[in-house]
Amino acid sequence: MKRIIKFILSILVFLNIIAWTTVFHLSQPRVLKVVFFDVGQGDSIFIETPQRLQVLIDGGPDLTVLEKLAKEMPFYDRTIDLLILSHPEKDHLFGLLEVLKRYKVKNILWTGIIRNTAEWQEWKNLIEKERAEIKIAEAGQKIILQENPLVLFNILYPFENLDSKEVENSNDTSIIASLIFGAHSLLFTGDITKKTEQELIAQDVYLNSVVLKIAHHGSKTSSSEEFLESVSPEVAVLSVGENKYGHPSPEVLANFEKFGIPVLITKEVGDIKIISDGEKYKISNF
């Protein structure tokens, strides 16, 4: 009998903890939150809208993303509303494989390109099992995350549907998306090179943004002066870890300095969080 009572009390305590955790989470200010995770040499970005819809862009090169998600999402929340794979290279894809195994994903946005790698094959198998709604990214799409207040993605690139197209290097197939909330926009660039930057400029794509996610971890193949002038961000975020490629390039950092654009680097400051109410924003690292 005592064991039964203890068991019931344990359940009641557990339910009480969940209830108060939920109340605390829902009582937080209704703002847009964007967290650039420090996942080493790779990208992973977590977004939460004012109505608590959650988006994950890329998953980094290992399982660090799981630890990061656990800090940002309540322990009882195992659902991700939208998962975006910018392009299927290991430093963006690998962590998503385990995310798909541990979380319920409602929607997936990716390019649909074919890569002859073990990670790509596992990705394909997992998203087929997930039964999420899958959308192939193409310029012109608008993905509304919530309507009041409006939060949406404008898909700026690729210019064409790349579904089932086989490529050897997918960097220049990266999804380029602008996240818009009130007066603020954040530009996500995957690993595009100067070639794609020039295509965007030639097509007169509107790039101006408050925050720029620096392409390809600060590689010298990206972030041309013309591109930075077109985007004209107030701040830029660089996701990079220890690497053998010389990232970030001194040339790239000099370009940002030339335009007076401050650069926040995950390898130096850790996770970078941007909070916006649609009119004002603040940045913190922790």
From TrEMBL:
Residues 41-242 form the Metallo-beta-lactamase domain. It comes from the Bacteria. Gene3D superfamilies: Ribonuclease Z/Hydroxyacylglutathione hydrolase-like. This is Metallo-beta-lactamase domain-containing protein.
